[in-house]
Design brief:
TIM Barrel, binds iron/sulfur cluster, 329 residues, alpha/beta, 12-stranded mixed sheet, 9 helices, two-stranded antiparallel sheet
């Protein structure tokens, strides 16, 4: 298993399938986009499936989440999902997406074995969406969400980042909309993972701000902490239930003590943490015909060295070189 020196065991694998994206969210990348990873450096579909197979059959991974950039841009996505769903033991499969194109692909992904989706949506207002993402695709995301629910990719979770002066007034409206549409809403604190390195701690909307705003319209009751387990989202029961709302507060309420995540990048690097500044290269081992056991050994070694946490509270904190768009959620 993938254990670290703090006794945490990674059972949740996040796989970034591409660093490319069809949105330009202001808190993630510049308008012109980024220098994308070179094609030869990207793992092939076969290489991804082999690494996930080793993780599931030899290293105790129980959950696989496909991310990006935008994973729906990966041409072989459905095939990858199908082959991973056929593994024994069968891992739980989810996808984090911006929802563009989901209306077209939800049924096929469900049939391939995908269990559920997280869709990013930061606003109910098309004009604010355009300001935040620099694209006019708000309606596509709403269609994608409805298609995911209709296809049975449930619970459909919605990830929202609030930005001061842009959409930070929308928290109660977003929750009312999510309750009405039976989506599970989670607010995510903005993290220092943007390509522009423009993040400011005093310029972000905190969990405290979000909860205070929600409480102007809803009664929120903390969920029993035992129910949280290693999940990143802290959850509250909305107006006595059944709906929940979550807050992922990596900055102000870190949850690293129970972290069970390990990450694989689209170019074959292992990241022990979202904020890791070092990576372990498995692509070179793959392409030099290393046996499964050797790849598993390197993966274990990498996780054994996982740091206690993000280091965000450390005055010496260094933002990772690799931006969020090339790490994935
Ligand atoms: S910051 Fe790193 S250690 Fe903490 S929960 Fe996230 S991935 Fe895990």
């Amino acid at each position: 298993m993938l254990i670290d020196t703090y006794g945490r065991v990674a059972t949740d694998l996040r796989v970034s399938l591409t660093d490319r994206c069809n949105l330009r969210c202001t808190y993630c990348m510049p308008e012109e986009g980024l220098q994308w990873l070179a094609k030869p450096d990207l793992l092939s579909d076969d290489e991804i499936v082999r690494l996930v197979r080793i993780a599931v059959t030899d290293l105790g991974i129980e959950e696989v989440r496909f991310t990006g950039g935008e994973p729906l841009l990966r041409p072989g996505l459905t095939g990858i999902v199908e082959r991973v769903a056929a593994l024994t033991p069968r891992p739980r499969l989810s996808l984090t997406t911006n929802g563009i194109g989901l209306a077209r692909t939800a049924d096929a992904l469900r049939a391939a074995g995908l269990d559920r989706v997280n869709v990013s949506l930061d606003t109910l207002r098309p004009d604010v969406f355009q300001t935040l993402t620099r694209r006019k695709r708000h309606a596509d995301v709403l269609r994608g969400l409805a298609a995911a629910r209709a296809a049975g990719l449930t619970p459909v979770k919605v990830n929202t980042v609030l930005m001061p002066g842009l959409n930070d007034d929308e928290a109660p409206d977003l929750l009312a909309w999510a309750v009405e549409n039976d989506y599970e809403l989670r607010f995510i604190e903005q993290m220092p993972l943007d390509a522009q390195h423009g993040w400011q701690r005093d310029g972000m909307v905190t969990a405290g701000d979000i909860l205070a705003s929600l409480r102007t319209r809803f009664t929120l009751t903390p969920e029993d902490s035992a129910e949280r387990g290693s999940a990143p989202a802290e959850r509250w029961i909305v107006d006595g239930g059944p709906h929940r709302v979550g807050v992922i507060a990596s900055v102000t309420r870190p949850f690293c003590r129970a972290c069970d995540r390990t990450r694989l990048t689209a170019d074959g690097q292992i990241r022990t943490c979202l904020f890791a500044t070092e990576e372990t290269d498995l692509r070179a081992a793959l392409r030099s015909d290393a046996p499964d056991a050797e790849i598993a050994r390197r993966w274990k070694l990498a996780m054994w060295g996982k740091k206690a946490g993000s280091g965000l509270d450390d005055p010496a904190f260094l933002q990772p070189e690799r931006p969020m768009s090339a790490i994935g959620g």
